[in-house]
Design a protein that fits this description.
Layout lengths: L13 E3 L2 E3 L3 E3 L15 H9 L5 E3 L3 E2 L16 H16 L4 E6 L17 E2 L8 E4 L2 E4 L4 E2 L5 H17 L4 E6 L4 H6 L14 H4 L1 H14 L4 E5 L15 H12 L6 E5 L15 H7 L3 E5 L4 H9 L5 E4 L1 H5 L3 H7 L28
Parallel strand pairs: 3-4, 3-15, 4-6, 5-6, 6-11, 7-10, 11-12, 12-13, 13-14, 14-15
Antiparallel strand pairs: 1-2, 8-9
């Protein structure tokens, strides 16, 4: 088999801020929906992540920062002590296997159901604009509920939820955190003028619409230091709740990225195209230009294969590459890519729910 270390430096050590990694292959956040209603990780999750610890960096599946932030049943949380203890099992297992792992902090905003919200309340959003689609609850799939607009006075509590979760991630032994400001969830809903019709200091102008993401990032950096905080953006993903793109993607996300530089973040993680779909972007959007605005490490994500990753790394377009679905059925993905081994493909029915089957029972290439 070919040794792909001769073709690229993707398999060589690097750093994301203060996080030293063995290679430039990142495991992207992949929701697997294998948690109880308490959102507490356990031994099964520790095994799953440890199996994939040869990734230079693991980004945990999206993790709810609070009960209000939940939009799907069977997803993990990090707002209470039991969840912290569960995640400590995971981080200990990853570290024992030689890996590094950061926690992706998640608030879904409007894409939720009253069945998932505390006391059956309405989901919160920048504006009371109905999303489309269904979400998963303990009773099965239901339509997402009509959200209510957050009051200006409530924004401080949203920031505090993120800060509390970031503190808990530190207690749980993570190597850092990733701010989930992507995929049409709460922070992304504030960024886009299609979903943010506010008239206060968090709406209207570009400067106002990026404010919440910046305020959240600032609060988390105060806890972790910028060099252990990353952020994920998806400027052209429209598919969660049929969320329209911002009317001026380059201006909005460009302004955000330039403002983020003041925090000295560990990395910027960008979904290049539609999350889980095409890499195509609108004619007036240049994601490489947005990348060039960021002064730190850049992780490219979305529909990469090794050839594309090698090419974009050689051109200096990425510092690292993130794979998501390929890590499901290939726990030893880094070694398979390095050696040119065949890659297993997980059937879609194994993505979500269930136990060990389709989760921790995938063999390594040498088995």
């Amino acid at each position: 088999m070919p040794d792909n270390t001769l073709l690229t430096d993707l398999f060589t050590p690097t750093r994301f801020g203060a996080i030293a990694t063995a290679n430039r292959i990142v495991m992207a956040p992949v929701t697997r929906s294998r948690y109880g209603e308490d959102g507490v990780p356990g031994a099964l999750h520790a095994t799953y992540y440890a199996q994939r610890a040869s990734a230079g960096l693991i980004v945990s599946e999206a993790t709810n920062i609070s009960p209000q932030g939940r939009g799907y049943a069977a997803t993990p949380g990090i707002w209470n002590d039991a969840q912290v203890a569960g995640w400590k099992q995971v981080t200990d297992a990853v570290h024992a296997a030689g890996g590094k792992i950061v926690c992706q902090l998640w608030h879904v905003g409007r894409f939720s159901s009253v069945a998932l919200q505390p006391d059956g309340g309405a989901p919160v959003a920048p504006s009371a604009i109905q999303a489309e689609g269904n979400t998963y609850t303990a009773e099965g799939f239901v339509p997402v509920s009509m959200p209510r607009a957050l009051e200006t006075a409530e924004i401080a509590d949203i920031i505090a939820q993120y800060a509390h979760a970031a503190t808990n991630a530190l207690r749980a032994g993570f190597d850092g955190v990733e701010v989930h400001s992507a995929n049409c969830y709460l922070l992304d809903q504030f960024l886009r003028d299609a979903t943010n019709h506010r008239t206060d200091r968090y709406g209207g102008t570009t400067e106002n619409r990026v404010r919440l993401t910046l305020d959240v990032t600032e609060a988390i950096v105060a806890i972790w230091g910028g060099n252990r905080v990353g952020i994920r953006l998806s400027p052209v993903t429209p598919d969660v709740g049929n969320t329209p793109l911002d009317s001026n993607v380059m201006a909005t996300y460009g302004h955000l990225i330039r403002e983020l530089n003041r925090f000295g973040l560990a990395y910027l993680h960008v979904v290049e195209g539609t999350t889980g779909g095409s890499r195509a972007v609108p004619d007036d959007v240049d994601l490489d230009q947005l990348r060039d605005m960021f002064t730190g490490a850049y992780i490219g994500n979305n529909d990469y294969d090794l050839d594309l990753a090698i090419d974009r790394r050689a051109q200096g377009k990425i510092d690292a590459v993130a794979f998501g679905r390929l890590f499901i059925a290939n726990p030893d993905l880094v070694e398979r890519l390095r050696c040119g081994s065949d890659l297993a493909i997980a059937p879609r029915e194994s993505y979500y729910n269930g136990g060990a089957k389709g989760f921790t029972d995938w063999p390594v290439a040498s088995s």
